[in-house]
Automatic annotation (TrEMBL), chains A, B:
Protein name: CASP-like protein
Record key words, sorted: Cell membrane, Membrane, Transmembrane, Transmembrane helix
Domain called Casparian strip membrane protein: residue spans: 5-153
Main location: membrane
Organism of origin: Quercus lobata (Valley oak)
Keyword Hydrolase on entry: no
UniProt GO cellular component terms: plasma membrane
């Protein structure tokens, strides 16, 4: 399976780039405006959801880098890892799934917070913010778009790791390894 | 694979119950309070995220019911479906994954909106709501908990459908069916 291993590496590298891009765009987003003679600054720290997104996406980038390193090492010592291969595949599969779900959820939470910043909530007297901090909001929108691209890449990666794991098992009996 | 098929049915039935429970708890959640001599009512319609959650979770419940019906039909005509089995498995796998991701994301968006209702956002002058609408907030918290349980069940279901699909494929060559 050389072809799919290469595709996997490309997907992981792109996912790392998009995660880092998202974290940087959110983390470095700030705008200062003078409102009623008082300078007010909007940063990602104003809403917890943005702070969590920065941490989650950075962690996801680091995790994917570690997986890339693991791929380099295991390609070199492939002969020695045959027995432990299935356990490593299980751990990789579960971590990939977890990363995909958590980054997608963190991104959606930040998206909801951004929607509230754009529309406000009249019933609750939460005012709109994006008519004042326009540039801040556009940068945040770009960041969320990158975050969704990264999440979709991560979902594809988790499909491949599911394939690599489950194709070793029998289709007749559940969780019984194939005879080779 | 009789054992795992039964587990799958139990998981889907529980997922349907939890999705319906979530949709009902969110949809029927309302509280009226008198604030400064004016009666104000909080319902799920005040925040878009809650409305979306009701629709998404209802759709997920309907989808799982349809899958349960499909399971009943395909069990009866199993002989006739062998050739089309792999395509049906692919569609089922993709829809299961999609449902798992979307309900998880909708739930997380609603969770973020609820966190804002509990904590408020001082910088943006968004005031807290849960110190006034306490019962409303507790019911919403319970609904979100049910929603997360349903999402985790859906993730397990999508694991099983990934297994059912990918265990039919060769572990040596990508997307090549096993010889049987």
């Amino acid at each position: 399976m050389v072809g799919i291993a290469q595709v996997n590496v490309y997907l992981r590298v792109s996912a790392v780039l998009f995660y880092v891009l998202t974290a940087c765009l959110v983390g470095l987003d700030s705008q200062t405006k003078i409102i009623f003679f008082v300078a007010r600054k909007a940063t990602y720290r104003d809403l917890e959801a943005f702070g969590i997104l920065v941490y989650v996406d950075s962690a996801a980038a680091v995790y994917n880098l570690l997986q890339l390193c693991k791929g380099l090492i295991s390609a070199r010592f492939e002969g020695n890892l045959k027995g432990a291969y299935i356990y490593i595949s299980w751990i990789g599969f579960l971590l990939d799934q977890l990363t995909a779900y958590i980054t997608f959820a963190a991104n959606s939470a930040a998206f909801e917070a951004s929607v509230l910043a754009v529309t406000g909530a009249e019933e609750f007297q939460w005012m709109k913010l994006c008519n004042r901090f326009t540039r801040f909001c556009f940068q945040m929108g770009g960041a969320l778009l990158c975050g969704y691209v990264a999440s979709i890449l991560m979902a594809l990666i988790s499909f491949i790791s599911a394939y690599n794991l489950f194709s070793n098992y029998s289709s007749k009996r559940f969780l019984r390894l194939k005879k080779t």
